[in-house]
Amino acid sequence: MLINRPPSAVSMWLGMLMMLLNPVARGAEIVESKSSFTSQGKTIDVEVFAPKKSGKYPGIVVLHGAGGMRPEGFGFAFREYARQLARNGYVAHIVHYFNRTGHQVAADETVMKQHFADWLKAVGDGVTHLASQPNVDPKRIGLLGFSLGAYLSLSEAMFDPRVSAVVEYFGGLPEVLAKDLKRLPPVLILHGEADRVVPVKEAEALERLFQEKSVTYEKKIYPGQGHGFLGADGIDAVQRATAFFEKYVKNGVPAPKAG
């Protein structure tokens, strides 16, 4: 895994500007709160963003990148993304999976390899926590991951049938897991062609694997973009993510059967 820097916030801010201009999203009232759960004896913090109106909503677990939730890791951008998900009719949980190991940032690849399994267990427990909430429909759960969080999202979805769809920003699937892939829900791959942190070959490897294993997927590679998408490409990425979740999570469209 080559995931040692957090994603650019620019893509998310531009994409969210598009959603703020959406009158439906802008008018929806939301509630923000804190929650937590226990994973392997450790308390994992959760930031909750939900529609104010009572009811059962689809849920999205949001997973930050290697920079964590610190301001310099663009935690503010992940929060704004979660707010927009809530305004669009989802319960979004930002899971602080680094709490499992006491990290604030994953400084290098050695740290990531050493603790990946612990973080993955925390993510799975985070899905359980989200699905147990009274305002969440446990049959409509999605994962939204960025960089390291994208690797974790895809890895969790391999083994968790509760996950209806994954949107992964500039991530991949660890080779040790990819070789044993049996199933995945629909996946949206978003990657920059000029990414120097997680090379585009990771997205290309995903596509080859998904074709071989008959996984339903969509892919968009942005020419000239790096680890984060500037300008219209950032807006396009959020539009694609929104549409993907609408189709496979909110509306529950089943993935096409192989063959």
Share in helix: 25-40%
Please state the average pLDDT score. Answer: 89
Q: Report the strand count.
A: 8
CATH topology: Rossmann fold
Low-confidence sequence ranges? 2-21
> What is the SS-derived class?
alpha/beta
Total of helices: 8
- N/C terminus separation: 32 Å
CATH class: Alpha Beta
Strand order of the largest sheet: 1-2-4-3-5-6-7-8
How many independent structural domains? Answer: 1
Order of SSEs:
HHEEEHEHEHEHEHEH
Q: How does the major sheet shape up?
A: 8 strands, mixed
User: Overall 3D geometry?
Assistant: globular
Strand content: 15-25%
- The CATH superfamily turns out to be Alpha/Beta hydrolase fold, catalytic domain
Return the CATH architecture: 3-Layer(aba) Sandwich
From the alpha carbons, calculate the radius of gyration and give it in angstroms.
17 Å
A few lines on this structure:
The protein is an alpha/beta fold and 259 residues long. It has helices at residues 9-20, 23-27, 75-87, 109-131, 148-159, 175-178, 201-213, 232-250; strands spanning 30-39, 42-51, 57-63, 91-95, 136-146, 163-169, 187-192, 217-222.
Written overview of the protein:
With 259 residues, this protein is of the alpha/beta class. The protein has one domain (9-250): Rossmann fold (3-Layer(aba) Sandwich). Helices cover 39% and strands 24% of the residues. The chain has helices at residues 9-20, 23-27, 75-87, 109-131, 148-159, 175-178, 201-213, 232-250; strands spanning 30-39, 42-51, 57-63, 91-95, 136-146, 163-169, 187-192, 217-222. The protein has an eight-stranded mixed β-sheet with strand order 1-2-4-3-5-6-7-8, sandwiched between helices. β6 (163-169), α6 and β7 (187-192) form a beta-alpha-beta unit. α1 (9-20) packs parallel to α3, α1 packs across α8 and α4 (109-131) crosses α5 (148-159). It is globular. The model is unreliable at 2-21 (pLDDT under 50).
